[in-house]
Amino acid sequence: MELDEIIKADPSENEEILPTNYDDALNEVGVGKFHALLLLTCGLCLMTTIIETLNIGFVIPLIEMECELDLTLSQKGILNGAAFVGVVMSSFFWGFLADWKRGGRHKIMHICVSAAFIFSVMSSLSINIWILIVTRFFVGFFISGVAANTYAYLAEFHCEKNRAKYMSFAGIFMAFALTFCPAVGWLILTFQNIAKISFNIPLVGLTYTIWRIFLLICAVPSGLVTFLMFFLPESPKFLLAQEKHEEALKILREVYHRNKKTDRAYPVTTIALNELITRREYENFSFFQQIWKQTNPLFKSPLLMKTIKTSFVMFSLFSASSGFFLWTPDILNKLHEYNNENFTVCNVIDEVMKMKELNVTLSNELCHVTPVDATIYKITFMMGAFFSIIYFVNGVIINRVGKRNLLGAWFVLCGVAGGLIPWTADYYKIIFLMLIFLTCGVCGSILSAILVDLFPTNIRAISLCFVLMIGRIGAVIGSIFVSFMIVAHCQLMFGLFAALLLVSALISVLLPGK
After folding, report:
1. Higher-confidence residue: 92 or 149?
2. SUPFAM superfamilies this protein is in (predicted)?
3. What is the pLDDT of residue 381?
4. For residue 180, is pLDDT > 80?
5. Which one-letter DSSP state was computed for residue 373?
6. Model confidence over 262-284: pLDDT tens digits?
7. Closest by CA position to 474, among listed 444, 448, 510, 431
8. Residues 402-430 as b or e (16 or more Cβ within 10 Å = b)
9. Is the torsion defined by CA of 256, 257, 262, 264 positive or negative?
10. Please, which residues have CB within 8 angstroms of residue 111's CB and are 6 or more apart in sequence?
11. Cα(361)–Cα(373) distance, integer angstroms
12. What is the Cα gyration radius of the chain?
């Protein structure tokens, strides 16, 4: 296979046409209304992935839900992790399909977000805990097909000088998700303190209570994305990788006219894709052989070290941010109780654990709706607002500072903050340090911007999915690690998280270019 794939606008034309680099072809397209719709849709895709994996955590604490579904402690744990397990199990599969000739970025994203919307609505109609667990598992199973492919899809419509900036701006929507869930919870779930909202659905024989309404509202963004995807085309770069030359050029022409609002012809007539394309040699293999052939390059030179380094950094990012984030609401609530005392965060954690050990299971006669404490929603809302600002700042400065330098700087800052947390006794300083420490979670969009430059088009989606899968495994391990370490070895736990982030900082700045 030739290194350069040449696209001819008119195959019958005999004169030699100098091909245009794909990046230059995107420069001619410009940035306009099409890219605004693209940013909105991709941003909502990322927002949906966060909402659908976090929303169940806001309804699990409700006594109303506990009584209605007769939840046990172990069932709560399974339910809380159901969507997350679905994400981990399917990430690699969807990444392959997005790179596969019969798949595609747009097609897979549209199928996945539509299915996630359907299962999310179905979960609000669950008549028992096991139906709820299964439907939430499938929400996670399908939403993972949206998560990593969104970055690849968005990146392939932007030239190199704009790519990292717009990927960071899309990441702002993930922070919006952290304000969306608590805002909805704050306004709707706490409304039951004033008046109980519920209505009967005779067809399925259930009462649609407040927690079901919350899950239904959380499905709205995925429904909106399902609608918006009808107005977006397939990635031209993916089509080029599949040797669908005329289709790719047609899409670029349409985007050009939507952005420029002109009758002038798109000036690009031929495009050179400067990446080695090896798809033809896979066509005679079976489906699973193609998966292996598609994945194999990630574990061979020259991509092996890139795969190892980026996987380690993503693992560190998720294990520190997501692993600790699950404990943040409890810790912050207790910190508020002791804000006038000279307590370190580890002292507070110790108090939290002692109180949990004293908790007893509610008896059936005490199973009733109690007022929802809005503190957890207020705190998470403020955290989401803070992260939104950080995402925006990253988008503004990323091209000036450089992706690797910015990622490394954030890891150093978050690592230092994490190391200082267990030794700080002032309430407001602890809050500030915890916010900075958890900010490492926003670095995912920066690392994803680096990833799309490191891996070629024909394995870009599967490489993103693989690295993100390693990150999500890191989140599971990080959460388990916290549960074992948080009481007996609190200071050591923060120290190890800090060391992990500082090592990731060094690896980040040493990551290769394209």
Report:
1. 149
2. MFS general substrate transporter
3. 84
4. yes
5. P
6. 778 888 888 876 554 444 455 55
7. 444
8. ebbebbbbbbbbbbbbbbbbbebeebeeb
9. positive
10. 142, 145
11. 19
12. 24
Is the Cβ–Cβ distance between 398 and 446 less than 8 Å? yes
Q: What is the mean pLDDT of residues 227-246?
A: 89
Opening angle at CA 254, ends 31 and 171, nearest 5: 40
* 452, 152 contact by CB (below 8 A): yes
Please give the full DSSP string across 77-143, using - where no structure is assigned.
HHHHHHHHHHHHHHHHHHHHHHHSTTS-HHHHHHHHHHHHHHHHHHHTT-SSHHHHHHHHHHHHHHH
Which class would CATH give 31-243+279-357+365-509? mainly alpha
- Yes or no: say if 509 and 409 are a contact pair by the CB < 8 Å rule: no
Greatest alpha-carbon pair distance for the chain in Å reads: 87
Q: Which residues pair with 5 in a beta bridge?
A: 273
- Output the CA torsion sign for 491, 495, 496, 497: positive
Which of 366, 493, 360, 353 shows the shortest CA–CA distance to 419? 493
Q: What is the DSSP letter of 371?
A: P
Residues 6+ apart with CB under 8 A from 287: none
Lowest mean pLDDT among 153-167, 201-215, 312-326: 201-215
DSSP letter at 6? Answer: E
Q: Are 191 and 210 in contact (CB under 8 A)?
A: yes
**Among candidate residues 8, 424, 479, 450, the one with its CA nearest the CA of residue 248:** 8
Distances (CA, A) of 467 to 84, 91, 92, 444, 471: 16, 9, 9, 11, 6
Ranges of each domain in the chain: 1-30+244-278, 31-243+279-357+365-509
Q: What angle do CA 132, 470, 135 make, to 5 degrees?
A: 10
Determine the Cα angle at 151 with ends 146 and 156, to 5°.
Answer: 120
Q: Is the pTM of this model over 0.85?
A: no
Report which DSSP code applies to 455: S
The neighbour count for residue 97, using CB atoms within 10 Å, is 23
Query: In this structure, what are the phi and psi dihedrals at residue 181, rounded to the nearest 5 degrees?
Result: -60, -50
Pairing type for strands 5-6 and 199-201 reads unpaired
Round to whole Å and give the CA distance between 504 and 326: 22
pLDDT at 310: 93
Instruction: Evaluate the CA torsion angle 142, 144, 148, 154 in order and state its sign.
Output: positive
SS3 of residue 61 by DSSP? coil
Q: How many CA atoms lie within 13 A of 13 on its CB side?
A: 11
